[in-house]
Amino acid sequence: MAVLLTEAREAVHRTLDLKSEKERLRGKKGEARRHEAFIVEQGLDRVFDGNWQGAAGQFLLRWYTHSTDDQRLVLITQDGITLAAPPVRAVLSREKHTEIVARLGADEVSLVDPFNWEYETRMLLLRFRDGSWRRIDTTDTHSDLHKHLLRQPLPDAFPNPLPLDN
Q: Which long-range contacts (CB under 8 A, 24 or more apart) does 60-63 make?
């Protein structure tokens, strides 16, 4: 009788565990849908804010004159942000041919997380003084750029333009 009672108790616990796991997964899926909706709503599914007259648009127009390779190495320096790339699209030995293609001063651009760390994401923004932005996708969610941002105080000069509605 005690064995049956123990087995019944374990079966009830397993059932409850499965329900809580299903609820957790449902919550996670809902969170992912809200995150994707926010990305589209804020226009973050685009390369930049869409304003060709803004600093980000002008920067993007110059982006490919420096290099036809669409990938850039982004470096944070004391003076601002430096971007490097090979002069032409490279598949092999990209690092060997990489050279500096742009330097952006700290007074003209800052690097921001558009989600204020609410979501784990590979996306960051180059946020220009005029409010325009250029999207940067990192190789992973815990990149050196993310780690750098976590160690920095929030910038006063470049407030995050994207409101978070909860």
A: 60/134, 62/102, 63/102
Please write the tens of the pLDDT for every residue from 12-52: 666 766 666 667 667 667 777 887 888 888 888 998 999 99
In a domain, 162, yes or no: no
pTM to 2 decimal places:
0.65
The domain tally of the chain equals: 2
Domain co-membership, 70 together with 6: no
Half-sphere exposure of residue 17: CA atoms within 13 angstroms, side-chain side: 6
Cβ proximity of 56 and 134 under 8 Å: yes
Q: Which has the closest alpha carbon to 126: 151, 99, 104, 152?
A: 104
Cα first-last separation, the chain: 52
